[in-house]
Amino acid sequence: MYIKAGIASFAAAAFLFAAGSVNASSHKIEEVTKFNLSAATSLQAPLSTGHYLVATADTTDSYVGETMTDAMPVEQQTENVKQFSAVLGQDNVAGVKDGSEQIYVDMTRTADEIIKKPLFNSDGQRIGTVHDIIVDREGDMMKVVVADGGMMSVGDKKAAFNSSLMSYNNTDDRYIMNINEKDINEAREFSYDPTKASASIETLPPEGLSIKKLIGSKLVDHNNEVVADIENISFNFKDSIDQLVIGYDKILGMGGETAAVDFSKIRLVEDRKGTRFQLTGNQSAELRDMLEK
Q: What is the pTM assigned to this prediction?
């Protein structure tokens, strides 16, 4: 997936949306508190009850300016926001205070904003909705599951297409996939059940993860005690998971606070108990200290 160029060009900005342009009305920028946790680099062996993902601790990838959700020094964030505010208008983006741990997330590149969104082809014809996004164990987008019917996608045919076929057009604030109804009809039906794989049914690959399944999963400490819910997931401009947006301090599942943590620093555990993100002992202590401040 990539973002198509919008109207307003700002190639001189400190960071660029796609080909150096952005439409102020379509990007939804939100300020989110970020909890900086140490990396889980000490955990390099699979769990006996399942398997988990530990990506590298380096999350910046040395590409300053491609996305607000990428972790970067506060000083660089401040300069980036100054440039971005000049384009979007000062009221659209909150400023960064020195020493803060605030990051800025483009909500158009989050799971909440992508899943259930209508899909259009290049001719402007609606072809379906985004039912799910499949990522690999490194968090990179693999497939977009398309449902050919209405918003709820209940009872509709679902087919998986390469994520590179989908783009976001910020001029029209819509997702584009250059396929048609015939492509969906001729594609294999998609199923999450690997036992149903056949010539007519494509299933979730062994290395695949469903974003819909990850949303609503739990963040647990090293003792498997729940500390937060996974409420949203943001993607960077390399189409990889960047931040996990967590919800905590809820009362009866309502209210509470939200914050972001680096996906690459948290291990993903899958076993008979289900799917969850688990903190190490050090991370649990770090997060507890942050929550108590």
A: 0.72
